Amino acid sequence: MIVHDGQRRPEAHRPTVVFGSGFASREVVRGLVAAGRPVVVVERGGREIGTADAALSQVAFRREAVRSGGFDFGAQVPPDFDGVPRFVGLGGTASLWSGKWRALDEIDMRRRHDDRQWPFSLDELEASLAAVACAYGIPSWSSDATLEDWRTEVEAHDLRLIEIFEQRPPVRLIDQWNELERSGLVHIVAEAGLIGVAHTGSEVHRLDLETPQGRLAIEPRDVVVACGGIESVALSEHLRTGKRGDGARFGGYMDHPKGIVGQLEARRGRDRLAHLMTLRGQASRLIAFALPADEIERDGIGNHTAFLWPAGHDGSGSGWQIIINLEQFPERENFIRLGARSEVSWRISRATWQDMNRFLERLSKRLSGLLGPVRLESGIQLRGASHPAGCLPMGDGSARQVDAAGRVAGCDNVYCASSAVFPVAGSANPTWTVAALGHRLAAHLGRA
Amino acid sequence: MQRPDSRILIAGAAWRVWRFIVPALLAAGYLRESVTILRRSTEAELHPGLEGIRVVTSLDALEGERFDMTMNCTAAAAMLDVQEGLVRRFPHARHFCDTPTFSDPADAVRALRLGLKRMHSLEDWPLMPNLAYFAARMRKSRNRAELRIEHFGILTHFLSLYRTIHGDWHPFSRGLVRSEGLVSASPARGRSVLFRYRKNLPLAKLALQTTDCLLEDFHEVEPSPHNDPEVFYRVATEGQVSYLQGATTISSTPIEAVWIRSFEPFSDRKNVHELDKFIGLVRLFRAIAAGGAARPYGYLASVRDNLTSLKLSSGERSLLL
């Protein structure tokens, strides 16, 4: 199926080559297998977690560290991966965590920043989001009566209640990949790197890979890049131009700056807060707060999210920490520079700090009214949340963009499904949206 | 450039001396022949950077000689003994000493006594061009301002900067609080200073936030200027190191390329941090050589920084002593 012998095969016999093995990749492959298509999955790391993977997982950074905020907040991961922002190896980031499932909000899909905007609405992504929810057991929206009562009260205080499915234990994709391999249509090539690309017109017609077993040539039908918000940019450029490491700069890098911003002393609604902990323990639901969509749209505030975390272990006390995930708007000075090892130059600008302060001013007043006094921290420390996004934004498919189908500009058979294509990133954990993009792309490729 | 004719005695020959002190003296125009090194023995090999410099192993070998400046960079255990010897032997010299580190109260008394002499500290943080600029911006700020100094390690460095910002005997803002890896100074007039002391130079940075600006230094050295006004950085060219905020040059120091190159690669924040220290020392030594208004950090202030650091390490709060 994969050895190139110089013969041009009929399209139907050529595999789709998928780079990466995380959630988006798995959704693409799952859809293609269902359509009876052969697939080759190329993974840069190994099939098991190892120190080589830990080294590959490090990201070169210039300004703020590109590392996970999750570790700073107690995420349990293998010791070798302390502080790394992603996982290179079979299963992708799922091997570190896949904890929080929340789709981007409608306002995120609607919002426009300069020339950036999602080319489709949340409604158009809904079927893919539902398919992913079904695949990973994400329950449908809350039917919890206590929570619904509370939602009304929260909305009366001009806040929005956000529900997040927190999967525990997290899904590790290894079993799913083994199952897909058993279909006979999927071939996984681990510890493999792209070393050569040949084009015919605007199509990639041959890929050369270096693997532990030697060089491998593949004649692809389509190529899908689904290896995260950083590496996808470098690989897409490599596939488009046939080379990498040219110092090209891709702006608009975004993350979700994350940090402890204050303390809440709950004087009211303590039974509700205790109920939240029950929901978290029994139904794997996390609750967070945001400002109303029409307000943030009207006032141009980011769609930030505030989580309440018990200062004690079980939430029985009155002290709660307020932790935020900020929406960061795309900025030219936050970028990825390609090279032998791509480098991320990222910082949190004054504009983002100011936006956070506007949000906190409103949030603290409203949370105080709802639950009790809020004390904002004086020296807020923000760090990356390991949600890199935005350097290959979806749009009209013009230079350095991908089109609404996910096709990389200038290449008719190269597609990207990762957070790199987010034109606007909101503050939702990106996994669900990324997986839905993979599902949507599989439907597109399966029809073709 | 006119060569300064001062004679300098350096006590110690370890990293601090060959990495910073001697190169900074040479870059400032002093000649190797003007420098004498006093070290305990000649058994250990001298660093190649110190070749051509006269070496002696005891103060007695310098009987009848005159030195204009002494610089004490010996190890903590010997530092006070050596300094007392230098002050006694060369009463008219200008004495510099590294920040003393001690835990014995008797040593504190000796150090405080020395502080009453004509002595300066070799503490370099208040001299570093980036820190000096941030400190000046902080000092001049009329309203809320927060300066963060992250992951540089040693607390006495921070205390020297804090003392520089707020003045030696400022009646306000002197309370320091230590908690969870952080030392913070009590805000006064809306100002605060935070020092995250866990040393991790790859993550080290400075950030100053006021009501109308954000300025950050990630220890970048660029080949040419850019125009991001929120970033403080350096441009190193053949023969000059400039410090800039966005497109605005804050200061420039002519330095021979050979010295600049000795701190490469600049992708490592530790190297850039050391370049900043070096530039600060060069400026100081040039000012002294020119007979201008050199303003080294006070030795007595360094002793008090050490005492404050000791107090903070045994408790959560201390005044800036």
Automatic annotation (TrEMBL), chain A:
Cofactor: FAD
Source organism: Kaistia terrae
Family: Belongs to the GMC oxidoreductase family.
Lineage start: Bacteria, Pseudomonadati, Pseudomonadota, Alphaproteobacteria, Hyphomicrobiales
UniProt entry keywords in alphabetical sequence: FAD, Flavoprotein, Oxidoreductase
Name of protein: GMC oxidoreductase
SUPFAM superfamilies: FAD/NAD(P)-binding domain (SSF51905)
Keyword tRNA-binding set for record: no
Any Pfam family the entry gives: GMC_oxred_C
UniProtKB/TrEMBL annotation, chain B:
Lineage: Bacteria, Pseudomonadati, Pseudomonadota, Alphaproteobacteria, Hyphomicrobiales
Annotated protein name in UniProt: Uncharacterized protein
Organism the protein comes from: Kaistia terrae
Domain of life: Bacteria
